[in-house]
Request: fold
Amino acid sequence: MFKELLLLIAAISSTTLAQSNVTCTKNAYPPPSKDKVPWFTINLDLPPEERWKEVATNRKDQIRNLLDKFKEFVRDWGEFAGKVIDFVDSDLGNLDKTLPYPFAGEIRGMSKYSGLNLGEVVLFNIFYEFFTVCTSIVAEDPNGNFVHARNLDFGLFIGWDVKNKTWEVTEALRPLVVNLDFQRGGKTVFKSVNFAGYIGILTALKPGLFSLTMNERFNADGGFIGIIKWLEGDRSEQWMGFLTRAVMENATSYAEAQFQLANTTMLAPAYFILGGNTSGQGSVITRAREKALDVWEMSSIQEHPWYILETNYDHWAKPLFLDDRRTPGNQCMEKLTRQNVRFAGIFDVLSTIPVLNKLTAYTALMEVKTGRFESYLRYCEDPCFPW
Reply:
């Protein structure tokens, strides 16, 4: 596996160094109907233990398959692997008792209706804090309408399949992608696209108010430190996915959402990409665990105050040369122009290699003012970047 990865890195290096311009994809929208993501309703009026019953029973086999893939990856660590798996199966479930309402009850319900070990469900809700490599865009058309879109890339360095040239965890994730309509009193509170079994939020829309995506931020003071502190009894920091879930349920404006995302202490660093309903309302919140390091406003970008694009690197620093999705993304947005900001145009940008890559599980498209929400499974055929 490592030899193959080294060859891939060498190929990407030569391609990246030689490439000054990118060929932007055109006419990729709409994708095939078979790639549309199905919808489920999460009734927030139900007790937490009952909210995920339909999702858990419908996708339990797929969740089991993903967890088995993850355990196979862990076993490659050698002797230590057995202890890790034993800890997940016998002890990690105890972490559920430390989680705030309503998340502890929802995780217990997910375990009950999926038939999975409680520790496995807790693990399933932890590892999205660490392995999410994404591209997010907020763009405003000439009429002040916002499109917020993202590619969700997941599974980096978790099981490269040499024969098929795919990431095993990414392949196992796609059958878990579901659209969710969170409702109270029979009315939509917000919409999201999730991996079935995960109760936090990575991509969501509150119709008429704001939209939100989360991208992983790589940092030495990362999520593992936060989780260790939590296990040792320090409950002062918030789980990223629970924070975003609370914001989507409770915040009533773009400004309120931005304040909470910027100022709540978290277990893991992150980028929060936020879109609003008023001209200029787009921002990237660069988070350390303790607080925001920077709030980058779309309206402050002299070159293109009509859109903001974030991958997995601080916007004031250069991206890793092996993983520069920012440059082609910006090139394609400039070629698109503000006049063509709509689902089709943004989908084309997110379909351009390497913005689209072997890790891409889905693309989501959101329009704040209308509440329109679409998501699609994505596949990157060769020649394609592994990330």
Notes: Residues 1-19 have pLDDT under 50 and may be disordered. The CA atoms of residues 92 and 119 lie 5 Å apart. The first strand starts at residue 39 and ends at 43.
